[in-house]
Design goal:
The chain is of the alpha/beta class. α3 packs parallel to α4, α5 packs parallel to α6 and α9 packs across α10. β10, α6 and β11 form a beta-alpha-beta unit. Pfam families: Aldo_ket_red. InterPro entries: AKR (IPR020471), AKR_Detox_Biosynth (IPR050523), Aldo/ket_reductase_CS (IPR018170), NAD(P)_OxRdtase_dom_sf (IPR036812), NADP_OxRdtase_dom (IPR023210). This is Aldo/keto reductase.
């Protein structure tokens, strides 16, 4: 699998990065092991997780698989801090103290002395951005994180964070954002800023919560997330979205591949995108997504998808 530079930094990440949001929830530890084994066998070497995933169980599962499924030094680990759910509801706290505490917890859970990339999980108006970024500086200077970045920051927010960190001689190398054929809002501001500043983009929900796999093209499967929590998928199944999905499925049929492969190959070729973070509930879903690693979408197909999804 292709390794992509993360922006202008020296860190390289797998173009298809393995997301772990479901580990410890829909996916039990044995299922997580099977996913990581399948991913590593396909040449993957980057895992994305977070302090707030699975009330901490997700990072514990990641840690249990290190040196067993894959040696620690051969795996690039990305984790995030600033969001927790231990109280039963989503709590955002990007204060210096909270971020430092959460990173140390993450390191203990995974049984590692450092993470390769540590991100602030979301923007917050409180506390001051300077305080939030001081935790990133601390993580780098103490060796807890090799590289740092942000997540879900708009273009101006990312630009401001980068300029402040430059004063500390700590580069901001990444921004993890929602980006897909059905969610191209980032192209208005965030993508151009990332291109200009040399920041690598990590795209979460690259298949628009499964909508771009084509499985909701005709109906909603009874065992799908759309059936269980329809509000989650409603924004991805409106009239415009269905037109995009039809175009993706048509392209996939013509190329003899899956709609997921077409969608991911389109995304990983976009400016500033270093990786698409893929998450799957089942091994067949994961294998289908991994097929995009070697797929090149013809220019005429890319242009058609650009037009219908704009």
């Amino acid at each position: 699998m292709r390794l992509s530079p993360l922006g202008r930094s020296g860190l390289r990440v797998s173009a298809l990065t393995l997301g772990t949001l479901g580990w410890g929830g829909d996916i039990d530890p044995e299922g997580a092991r099977e996913q990581l084994e399948t991913y590593v066998a396909a040449g993957g070497a980057t895992v994305d997780t977070a302090h707030g995933y699975g009330l901490g169980e997700t990072e514990e599962i990641v840690g249990s698989l290190l040196d067993d499924v894959v040696p620690r030094e051969e795996l690039t680990i990305i984790t995030k801090a600033g969001i927790s759910r231990t109280s039963g509801s989503r709590v955002v706290d990007t204060s210096r103290g909270a971020l430092m505490h959460q990173l140390d917890l993450s390191l203990r859970r995974m049984g590692t002395e450092y993470v390769d990339l540590w991100l602030v999980h979301t923007w917050s108006d409180e506390p001051a951005l300077e305080e939030t970024l001081s935790a990133l500086e601390w993580a780098v200077t103490t060796g807890r994180a090799r590289y740092v970045g942000v997540s879900n920051y708009q273009g101006w927010q990312m630009t401001r964070a980068l300029s402040l960190l430059e004063q500390c001689r700590v580069p901001l190398v990444a921004n993890e954002i929602e980006y897909s054929l059905l969610r191209r809002e980032a192209e208005q501001e965030t993508v151009p800023a990332a291109v200009a500043l040399g920041v690598g983009l990590l795209a979460w929900s690259p298949l628009a919560r499964g909508a771009l796999t084509g499985k909701y093209r005709r109906s909603v499967p009874a065992d799908s997330r759309a059936a269980q929590r329809p509000a989650l998928l409603e924004p991805y199944l409106d009239g415009h979205a269905r037109a995009v999905i039809e175009a993706v499925c048509t392209a996939a049929e013509g190329l003899g591949v899956s709609p997921a492969e077409v969608s991911l190959a389109w995304l990983t070729s976009r400016p500033a995108v270093s990786a698409a973070v893929i998450g799957a509930r089942t091994l067949p879903q994961l294998r289908s997504a991994l097929g995009a690693a070697d797929l090149g979408v013809p220019d005429q197909v890319t242009s058609a998808l650009d037009e219908v999804s704009s």
